[in-house]
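[recover] target loaded
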């Protein structure tokens, strides 16, 4: 009896070790796609998966995608650049809406919620988004990236809702393959978003810096000036505040006189 009990304990111990080993394989063997930017990630050991090359700047890449059969709702999706559709879908990457009814519009994907994972079963990277709409319902949107190096034009087979408020689509394109479109990702879009006023301010700051440094060096080493005399146009800048004050007083006096004439 003692020997049988010992054998049972040994078998249970080996079973427990096997379970721990399998759990460790599942936990640590899963691939990780580390974020690079808002729509690309680096799949460890394989390369970067980037959707910048197929992103649309002015409209969704996939407009009016039909949902499961029997549904009247459509979904629009763009991988990188946000868009706005009606009031409820403002600055989103995916929007759900009823055909012909603008009041039935719900956000599906907010950029800040994006999570990159790897689906071991289908061997593909998955972009997952969430969004909470005005009806307080939280929706989840999964985009599986199916790698096919022969596909030049991105395509999707539609969207499946399962379970409720969880939507899944598959995007097929060569850019879903690691390393294929990594070089197409723009280094930075910050310069494209600068307004004319911002550019003028930058140019003004650069001009002032060059003016001060260049003027000081010229006066100090060429003109041999010292002390406060190395400041470019020192007399002008010394008198500048008083001249501004005089100009302000002159303008105010003219406005007051005009008001007095009009009252008479």
């Amino acid at each position: 009896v003692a020997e049988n009990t010992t054998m049972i304990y040994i078998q249970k111990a080996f079973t427990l070790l096997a379970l721990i080993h399998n759990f460790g394989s599942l936990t640590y063997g899963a691939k990780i796609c580390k974020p690079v930017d808002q729509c690309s990630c680096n799949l460890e050991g394989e390369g970067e998966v980037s959707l910048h090359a197929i992103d649309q700047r002015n409209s969704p890449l996939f407009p009016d995608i039909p949902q499961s059969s029997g549904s009247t709702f459509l979904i629009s999706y763009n991988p990188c650049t946000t868009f706005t559709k009606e009031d409820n879908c403002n600055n989103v990457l995916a929007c759900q809406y009823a055909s012909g009814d603008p009041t039935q519009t719900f956000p599906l994907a907010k950029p800040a919620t994006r999570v990159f994972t790897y689906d071991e079963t289908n061997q593909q990277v998955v972009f997952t988004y969430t969004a909470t709409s005005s009806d307080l319902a939280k929706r989840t949107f999964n985009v599986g990236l199916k790698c096919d190096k022969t596909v030049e034009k991105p395509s999707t087979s539609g969207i499946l809702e399962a379970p409720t408020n969880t939507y899944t689509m598959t995007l097929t394109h060569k850019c879903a393959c690691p390393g294929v479109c990594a070089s197409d990702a723009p280094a930075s879009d910050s310069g494209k978003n600068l307004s004319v006023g911002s550019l003028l301010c930058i140019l003004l700051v650069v001009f002032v810096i060059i003016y001060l440094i260049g003027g000081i060096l010229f006066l100090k080493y060429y003109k041999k000036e010292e002390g406060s005399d190395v400041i470019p146009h020192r007399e002008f800048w010394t008198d500048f505040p008083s001249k501004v004050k005089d100009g302000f007083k002159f303008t105010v006096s003219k406005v007051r006189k005009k008001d007095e004439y009009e009252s008479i």
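[recover] notes: Confidence is low (pLDDT under 50) at residues 1-10, 16-28, 184-193.
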